[in-house]
Amino acid sequence: MFRLSEGFKLANWILAFFLGVASLASLGRPALSFGAGSDPNWTPAPAPGVFPPSPPLPTRENTGCTTDLRLDGPGSAIALLPVRQQGPAGICTAEAAADLVDVWSLSHRAPFGFASRSHRTSHIMAAIGAASHAQRKFVGGVKFARVYDWIRTEGSCDQAALTTASGLAINGAYQRFEGDFNAIYDSLYESWERVNEKGASADVVAPEVAACITRSSFLSGVLHDFREVERALRQSTRSEFFRDLFLRACDSHLERPHLPKLRPLELAGNSATRAIDAIFNRTVAPQPIAIGYCKKVLTNPQDFKGLPRGDAAETLEFREDDDRCGSHYSTVVGRRWNGPRRRCEYLIRNSWGQSCDAYKDSGLDCDADKGEVWIDGWQLNRAVFEGHHLNEE
Prior knowledge:
Elements: H1 4-25, H2 60-63, E1 69-70, H3 92-106, H4 123-133, H5 144-154, E2 156-157, H6 159-166, H7 174-196, H8 202-213, H9 217-222, H10 226-233, H11 238-250, E3 254-255, E4 262-264, H12 272-282, E5 289-294, H13 296-299, H14 312-319, E6 327-338, E7 343-349, E8 365-367, E9 372-376, H15 377-383, E10 384-390
Antiparallel strand pairs: 1-6, 2-3, 4-10, 5-6, 5-10, 6-7, 7-9, 8-9
Helix pairs in contact: 3-4, 3-5, 4-5, 4-11, 7-8
């Protein structure tokens, strides 16, 4: 017959068993405690079906894209500027710098702006001048800040003056213009070298030089005899030779508006659009903002992988690779909120002429009349490696 004492023993064994299991289960886990003695690194698992709150959806306010904005509206300074066409020449930094100078100068009265309202900055003169100042042989690839600072220091040459003097519509024909002038330079240099190093008579070479000069109405207007050619060729680089010739042609067509200094765009957290929005939001009459970025986001954004943001050398190598990036410079002249996509888009004023052919496979919204294209802010952030704006403070 079952005794009461044996029942107590059985109950004690069962209690001990469950206490042992509980002790084993607690190994490796902080002891449950409350108040000041609790472990700050331990948090209980959420109850089934309970999830942490989702981040708020993007809105105009929390993205900084507070209002739609276009700097190219009717009557604006940008609306007065021709759409630039750089062609295959690598002078996009000069195109963007010239646009920045012109918009500022047409937005202000002299002496801060141009005295002549028809004056338009020659990007060719700016590219050649900056390349010469940097002691570069060729005009392509000069840094944006160097081009802008050259214009700010040396002045803005009227594009119409060079177009008239050269006999070429330089805007859009620079590659042919450069090719013609390089051929003339080589002929002149060969003639001068025969006199300077090989002892040929200047009288014998002079007719050849004269014939070479007359091949260009531009040259015949600024170089008149062999001695002037000789003085010009004593410059150490082609860009210096062209710079001096162009400055002669610009002689009475230079303007020196009081331009502000450049300020670098602060790309904190790799967010170019945040910096752009901050400038647009705090400025009553904002100016365009110049950006250096990978042009692949314009031509083939679907295959663009984004700039590497770690090692500086790796980023530079990536920027110089045309297949992966293709460094380019343009200006940002507007923004708009895309409600269905909950994203801000930015208006890029490019230097590829009025045609939308370059963007036909990109799916981007292009405004052919103005040479401008809308690009998604998220994509732009992945592509921008530097930027500049005017210090208006």
